[in-house]
Amino acid sequence: MVKKMKAKISGLILVLVVVFSVPDTFGQQPERDTVSKIHKYVKVEVKGMACPFCAYGLEKQLKKINGAKEIYIDIQKGYATFRVSGKNDVTKEKLDKIVIDAGFKPGNITFSNKPFIKSIPEKIRK
Amino acid sequence: MKHPFSKILILILLAGFGTSNLAFAHEPLYGIGPHVLFKGGFAPHITIAGSGSLFEMEYSLGYGITRNWTVIGEMPFVLDNNNYSFEGFHLKQKYRFYSWFEPGMSRQVSAVTKLVFPVGNDSPTVINLGLTGGQEALKWYWFFSAGYAAKFINDSMHPGNNLDYTATFGFRPFKTNYYKPDLVIFLEGIGRFVEKSKLNGNTIQNSGGHAWSLAPTFMLTYRNIALRGGIETGMAKSGYVEKPETNYKFTLELHL
């Protein structure tokens, strides 16, 4: 009798473990995979950027890029990052022009399928 | 005397090619700096200034024609002892012809022209040609400027032209972050040399001279909004010019 009870409890625990692990497998994880496949992350080094007021011009120019989201500017480290989704025509040449039009000098430009910063502040996510 | 308007336009055009900017962003409040607006950017300002019974309000709008060339229109109004007057339309332009960019630092030099249209027959048309440059970094700032104002007036009395020059030093007391308010403190040194005036072509000996003043100023920005303010105090003079009266100035500026 006791053995049957133990077997039922063990079975129940197993079912619960399986049930609660399913959403991670079929819910969140695939979404992260999808994001990394269809989104492109861009990092642009910007020389001459020393004040937030002037950097606003860079943000405004970057917003002109189709599909550009999560634009993040780091003045201390001198770069801007953003994510582009869907089909886009983002090229290094186009980004060079954007930085120059904003009044700065472009440095290295890097593309990646992974974000360049660990966490973007919530208010920047759009 | 032939009205010099056509000459003024030619001078402005000639001076305009190859120069850039007006007072923007982290720049001197009483002087000018080399900053230009980003291409396609608009910058409306509203400025209030005053000393004693004098109160001045100025509306202005800047536009970035190219990444190096900005034009600005200004409309100043003055209230003095309950008398309200329009001080004439000002047209400025700034052209940045030199820039050196490094991570977190920029050095720039710009040429500036300003045209002050006359109000009535007794005020002169003024053309101001100037040069300004400086360095802006994450911690320290410095700027210089020099501008010569030539006055044209169809009258027997010709006020002396003047040369204005400034030197500004600034620092940022707190580490800057694009998403937080940013404060920069400046100390501006301002000098003015006024040439002697002329009456019917004859030099007025007891006119003209030098005057110097100091102005602690600040700039507080948050993203595309900037508030600047300061107080100018006259320090010294020589010759027959007045020492600048202590006055205040505040400017609210947007970048759109």
| Order of neighbouring strands in the sheet with most strands of chain B | 1-2-3-5-6-7-8-10-11-14-15-16
Terminal Cα span of chain A = 58 Å
SS summary, helix count of chain B: 1
Main sheet of chain A? 4 strands, antiparallel
Please give the largest β-sheet of chain B. Answer: 12 strands, antiparallel, barrel
Highest CATH level, the class of the domain at 39-124 in chain A: Alpha Beta
- Overall, the morphology of chain A is elongated
Strand content of chain A: 15-25%
The number of distinct β-strands of chain B equals 16
Radius of gyration of chain A: 23 Å
Quaternary = heterodimer
Structural class of chain B: mainly beta
Unreliable stretches of chain B (pLDDT < 50, length at least 5) are: 1-23
CATH topology value of chain B: Porin
**Percent helix range of chain B:** under 10%
Specify the number of helices of chain A: 3
Proportion of residues in extended strands of chain B:
over 45%
Short description:
The complex is a heterodimer of chains A (126) and B (256). By secondary structure, chain A is α+β, with helices and mostly antiparallel strands.
